[in-house]
Amino acid sequence: MSDFEERIVGALRVRIDRTLCVGFGDCVTEAPEAFVLDDTGTAVFVNPEEVERDRLLRACDVCPVDAITVWDEAGGQIVPGSL
User: Fold this and answer.
1) Where do the structural domains in the chain lie, given as residue ranges?
2) Is omega for the bond preceding 80 within 30 degrees of 0, making it cis?
3) How far is it, in rounded angstroms, from Cα 56 to Cα 27?
4) DSSP for 28-71, written as a single string
5) Is pLDDT above 70 for 1?
6) N or C: which terminus of the chain has fewer CB atoms within 10 Å of its end residue's CB?
7) Per CATH, which fold does 4-79 belong to?
8) How far is CA 54 from CA 1, 50, 57, 58, 60, in A?
9) Separation of first and last alpha carbons in the chain
């Protein structure tokens, strides 16, 4: 498996950096439809497109180690950072 997992969700590009994720699971708590922890304790996508944009962004932003990055449709980084 790659060090990165990436999805396009609506107009957002969401990337999980598997090398940074330490399995706190805050993203799973915030949006269990979008993320789960795999058998190594690392966040992976489930169905992020099923989560409304604001809650998906919040789930990405709560990562305490900034393992999830989100860019908007113009390519500007919005998570971590400007929420």
Assistant:
1) 4-79
2) yes
3) 9
4) HHH-TTTEEE-TTS-EEES-GGGS-HHHHHHHHHT-TT--EEEE
5) no
6) N
7) Alpha-Beta Plaits (3.30.70)
8) 29, 12, 5, 6, 10
9) 30
Q: Using one digit for the tens of pLDDT, what is the confidence trace for 2-52?
A: 899 999 999 999 999 999 999 999 999 999 999 999 999 999 999 999 999
Residue 2 Cα distances to 17, 18, 44, 47, angstroms: 9, 8, 11, 19
Side chain identity, residue 17: D
Cα–Cα nearest to 31, from 79, 82, 81: 79
Q: Quote the pLDDT of residue 15.
A: 98
